[in-house]
Design brief:
By secondary structure, the chain is mainly α. The longest helix is centred in the C-terminal third of the chain and has 34 residues. About 5% of the residues are buried. The mean pLDDT is about 85.
Length: about 80
């Protein structure tokens, strides 16, 4: 069917998009590249790496706040107030 071919194409694109030999590539390559497995591959990537991205974003935002407060002359933990 039409959607089956779309998921097959998406899986092939996913395989091409990941950095070779990266953790993400190894994760994707461990799953047979079929239309039925595309949603499974996406779910597995989200489970494995989704939270890490959130942590990176929060740490980046926190560091940005600290740097802005340091540049404006605030001291210590007053940036939390």
């Amino acid at each position: 069917t039409q959607f089956r071919k779309i998921d097959e194409n998406k899986f092939q694109y996913l395989l091409q998009a990941v950095v070779p030999k990266s953790k993400a590539a190894l994760e994707v390559e461990s799953i047979p590249a079929t239309a039925d497995n595309y949603p499974k591959a996406i779910a597995q990537l989200k489970d494995r790496f989704g939270q890490d991205l959130s942590v990176q974003i929060y740490v980046r935002d926190l560091l940005s706040m600290v740097m802005k407060n340091a540049a404006s002359g605030r001291a210590g933990s007053s940036f939390l107030l």
